[in-house]
């Protein structure tokens, strides 16, 4: 599993703020290869220790967090997004500037949690969402999820070069379907996650 995030990893606010522009620019560039657009308003960001740590750091900046207990709470909450050795972690975003249109889309995409897959070679891995919203008439705009990899899927990722590996995200919701093959740079980044090189 990705190395745990601790309080020692969180930069003091004054240190972070002094170089925040640099950190943000670096992370934007880093996430570029890890964010996949499935549809005009749907994207997936593959998470790892770097992205999760950055999110916690940004929260501490936005909320002026200096209290260690509060920081520990955020670390505990967001550490659930860290991938284990045999899985990939991701956040699914449904984003529209038009709030009314977004509300309509969230109703239309109810049940999306049951319709997302990652095809690794010949294997198809079903996404496991942190929360399932079958008890309401709409889904949410942000979902945290994991792709648990079988031994076969892991072996495939470890034995193929990024150029040769065939990874595809599949969304087969009744109201919306999409298939997106992961670019080489994305595959490289995910392979680095699995070998603790990220």
What does this molecule look like?
By secondary structure, the chain is of the alpha+beta class. The protein has two domains: 1-32 and 49-82, no CATH class; 88-198, no CATH class. It has seven helices and nine strands. It has helices at residues 13-18, 20-32, 49-62, 68-78, 99-108, 151-159, 184-194; strands spanning 35-39, 42-47, 87-94, 116-120, 123-126, 128-129, 142-148, 167-173, 176-181. Strand 1 (35-39) and strand 2 form a beta hairpin. The mean pLDDT is 94. Pfam families: DUF3501. It comes from Alicyclobacillus mengziensis. This is DUF3501 family protein.
Provide the helix percentage.
Answer: 25-40%
Mean pLDDT value: 94
Q: What distance separates the N and C termini?
A: 12 Å
Order of helices and strands: HHEEHHEHEEEEHEEH
Number of domains: 2
Q: Major sheet, described briefly? A: 5 strands, antiparallel
Spatial sequence of strands, sheet with the most strands: 1-2-3-7-6
Q: Based on Cα principal axes, name the global outline.
A: globular
Which band does the percent of strand residues land in?
25-35%
Helix-and-strand structural type: alpha+beta
Overall radius of gyration: 18 Å
Query: How many beta-strand segments?
Result: 9
Number of continuous helical runs: 7
Low-confidence segments, given as residue ranges, are none
Protein name: DUF3501 family protein
Pfam families: DUF3501 (PF12007)
Organism: Alicyclobacillus mengziensis
InterPro entries: DUF3501 (IPR021890)
